[in-house]
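Hypothesis: this fold can be encoded by more than one sequence.
Test: take the structure tokens below, design a sequence, compare later.
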């Protein structure tokens, strides 16, 4: 079984408190948490030798992508028994500061015990959510700690398969965190015996750490909560271990719950929900596959579903990658293991498969300027034209500095493409006339 790892957060330029800039990539999968960039002018096709390297740096262990905001880049790693967030100049890679805390997290399946979830940047603060459940709020300009919460101690969550891997989300004055708290007592031998205690999600005052509400009788997943406009109302969505839950992000009041997960004990939900108008697409790779939900009126109705299909007939089985919607079509990596993973395009309205590109290994996509930037877990970087009729490869090269596993999704901020592999972070020039 392969893990599901997500992470986020960081920001560009400014010695004082950074404010939001058009090119910032401050959280998981970018500003809208959907892997879509609004930047223009990328190099296409790429030079045969690949994209120009601007800078690189060594990393500790972990699986979290960097984030960028206000001219600063933040990455979250582990060094021996210390978790560390490092702040760098996003353009030069120069280290500006670092913050550390002790950690004793051990992975139950033998994977690197570093952070799974990236930092999340909001104005002059950066939030960390470590694999062991430590939640920190720091100043972005100097790394000074403002507050912290030990969520494992406070909410007694039982260690999930790969530790904490869900990035918090900021909504107005709240930091909403997927905690997945459970009944007191030791972790049962069988994870199915863990009982949730109503703290599936906890909202903290983002400035002080004061608890504002807790909601959801849910255990945690590796998907990250998002906030979207559904039926004309702001709604928070979280694809938990067992279901998609919708709730009011300011009060925690539950709006709906739609069960969706595999029956296998050793299975996880990891992709973020994909919101298209009043519809939401869910995808996982261990059992039921994908489903398109219509949320008009507030109650989920299934438009189409993979649940009753044979595995070979399912439309899309996303592991940790979040698929991307473009003009009525969904693009994403389908498959649980590296040897059976493939890129697919499916029709949103029906789930019909439009094309398949086999033997791509597991990969992640970033949509920018009419193209997909595709990063394979083995370090192959591809530029694909968005085309629902066929797989259309424009450029492709193996990035020599990247070593498996490249599970962190690509990050694009102010023309610079940031890629993470084992022990290495690269900054490449994707847009040559970028304006800092």
């Amino acid at each position: 079984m392969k893990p599901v790892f997500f992470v986020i957060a960081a920001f560009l330029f400014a010695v004082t408190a950074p404010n939001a800039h058009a090119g910032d990539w401050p959280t998981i999968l970018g500003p809208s948490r959907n892997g879509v960039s609004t930047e223009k002018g990328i190099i296409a096709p790429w030079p045969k030798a690949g994209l120009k390297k601007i800078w690189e740096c060594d990393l500790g262990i972990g699986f979290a992508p960097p984030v960028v905001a206000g001219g600063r880049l933040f990455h979250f790693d582990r060094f021996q028994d210390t978790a560390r967030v490092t702040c760098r100049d996003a353009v030069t890679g120069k280290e500006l500061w670092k913050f550390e805390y002790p950690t004793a997290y051990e992975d139950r399946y033998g994977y690197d015990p570093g952070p799974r979830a990236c930092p999340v940047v909001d104005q002059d603060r950066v939030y960390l959510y470590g694999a062991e459940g430590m939640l920190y709020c720091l100043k972005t300009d100097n790394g000074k700690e403002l507050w912290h919460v030990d969520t494992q101690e406070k909410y007694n969550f039982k260690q999930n398969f790969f530790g904490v891997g869900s990035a918090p989300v900021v909504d107005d004055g709240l930091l909403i965190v997927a905690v997945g708290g459970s009944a007191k007592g030791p972790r049962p031998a069988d994870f199915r015996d863990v009982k949730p205690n109503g703290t599936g999600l906890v909202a903290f005052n983002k400035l002080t750490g004061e608890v504002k509400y807790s909601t959801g009788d849910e255990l945690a997943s590796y998907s990250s909560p998002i906030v979207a406009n559904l039926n004309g109302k702001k709604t928070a969505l979280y694809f938990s271990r067992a279901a998609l839950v919708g709730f009011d992000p300011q009060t925690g009041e539950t709006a709906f719950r739609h069960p969706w997960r595999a029956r296998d004990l050793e299975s996880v939900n990891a992709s973020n929900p994909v919101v298209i108008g009043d519809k939401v697409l869910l995808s996982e790779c261990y059992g039921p596959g994908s489903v398109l939900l219509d949320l008009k009126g507030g109650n989920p109705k299934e438009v189409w579903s993979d649940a009753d299909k044979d595995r070979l007939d399912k439309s899309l089985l996303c592991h940790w990658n979040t698929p991307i919607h473009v003009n009525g079509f969904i693009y994403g990596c389908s498959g649980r293991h590296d040897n059976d993973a493939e890129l697919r395009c499916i029709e949103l309205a029906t789930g019909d498969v439009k094309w398949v590109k086999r033997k791509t290994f597991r990969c992640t996509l970033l949509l920018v300027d009419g193209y997909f930037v595709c990063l394979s877990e083995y370090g192959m970087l591809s530029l694909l034209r968005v085309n629902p009729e066929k797989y259309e490869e424009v450029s492709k090269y193996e990035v020599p500095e990247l070593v498996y596993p490249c599970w962190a999704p690509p990050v694009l901020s102010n023309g610079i493409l940031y890629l993470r592999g084992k022990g290495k972070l690269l900054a490449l020039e994707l847009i040559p006339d970028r304006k800092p």
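Residues 151-155 form the longest helix (5 residues). DSSP finds one helix and 32 strands in the chain.
Hypothesis status: open.
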